[in-house]
Amino acid sequence: RNHSLISEFILLGFGNDPKLQPLLFLLFLLIYNVTVAGNTLIIALVVVDHNLRTPMYYLLGNLSFLEICYTSAFLPRLLASLWTGDRSVSVKGCFVQLYFFAVMSATEALLLAAMSYDRYVAICHPLRYAALMNGRVCGRLVAGSWLCSFLNCTLTDVFLWQLTFCDAKEMDHFFCDFTPLIKLSCSDTRTLELVTLTIAALGALVPCVLTLTSYVCIISTVLRIPSSTGRKKAFSTCSSHLIVLSVFYGAVITVYVVPTGNAPTVLHKILSVFYIVLTPLINPIIYCLRNKEVQESLQKALFKLAAFRNR
Ligand SMILES: *[C@@H]1O[C@H](CO)[C@@H](O)[C@H](O)[C@H]1NC(C)=O
């Protein structure tokens, strides 16, 4: 197939102000390191600490693993281009980046839905928790999330591969995203946009509805608990997850749903940074700051480390 007439795009990124590039490089380098370190810490705690061997933390560990992959799909590339000043990206590379970005966003939404299902069972059916949620179910939920996202995105990609690109090379964004890519194409993109948007919307809507349903059930159950301490206790187990959820969906909605047709692309870029750079960073921070069990586990690990050093 004569896929493309040009072989590379130029990602304009954050402009080419020479004073801004080193600053951005340092900022993103810091963010990348903290994201990888924080999420690795969560995975290590979940793997090492016996108290965290429950479905809720298995899912959290898997979410952290996903977020390391997610930031690694585009931050190293962005760092390299800020460092070298080389902003070109091959058309194939662009598609690959878009593909992984899409797979991981979809998996993240599904994993967050799986985590709310876990909280739903724990709060609304506590007596059947052991039967309904265990390592095996958890493994199936995780595998199912990855598989569905791969299938969904592969389907979308088959349509995207039909695009041809002729002269326009400059993409005013810092990574290969769907809308800027479509804008550059010289094919007739109307039907393609409709088809891919429908598939993507379905892929986003299903986990969103599942999550919402779980939380409606959770909240109505929590409100029926007579004592206020009981209510607080029940709710505290899902407050961290609720914050992570709000950050994720808040960002997705502002970037992709709110029409920014006439808004300057600068605004869109800044919102995208929030969405794709900050969500993976915020997750471990919130769990370390707000979740009692993670905090205890972290303290224990630090004590052990100190004891080991003093020996
Ligand atoms: C991911 O989930 C599986 C299945 O429950 C679990 O065995 C595994 O430990 C989890 N991975 C992490 C890093 O927590």
Automatic annotation (TrEMBL):
Q: Which UniProt keywords apply?
A: Cell membrane, Disulfide bond, G-protein coupled receptor, Glycoprotein, Membrane, Olfaction, Receptor, Sensory transduction, Transducer, Transmembrane, Transmembrane helix
Q: Which residues form the G-protein coupled receptors family 1 profile domain?
A: 38-287
Q: Per its record, what are the GO molecular function terms?
A: G protein-coupled receptor activity; olfactory receptor activity
| N-terminal signal peptide | none
SUPFAM superfamilies under this entry?
Answer: Family A G protein-coupled receptor-like
Q: Spell out where the chain crosses the membrane.
A: 23-48, 55-75, 95-117, 137-161, 199-223, 235-258, 270-289
Top-rank lineage group of the source organism:
Eukaryota
An annotated GO cellular component: plasma membrane
Compartment list:
Cell membrane
Q: How does it sit in the membrane?
A: Multi-pass membrane protein
PANTHER family xrefs = G-PROTEIN COUPLED RECEPTOR (PTHR24242), ODORANT RECEPTOR-RELATED (PTHR24242:SF359)
Q: Which family does it belong to?
A: Belongs to the G-protein coupled receptor 1 family.
* The name this protein goes by in its record: Olfactory receptor
Q: Which organism is it from?
A: Pelodiscus sinensis (Chinese softshell turtle)
Organism placement in taxonomy: Eukaryota, Metazoa, Chordata, Craniata, Vertebrata
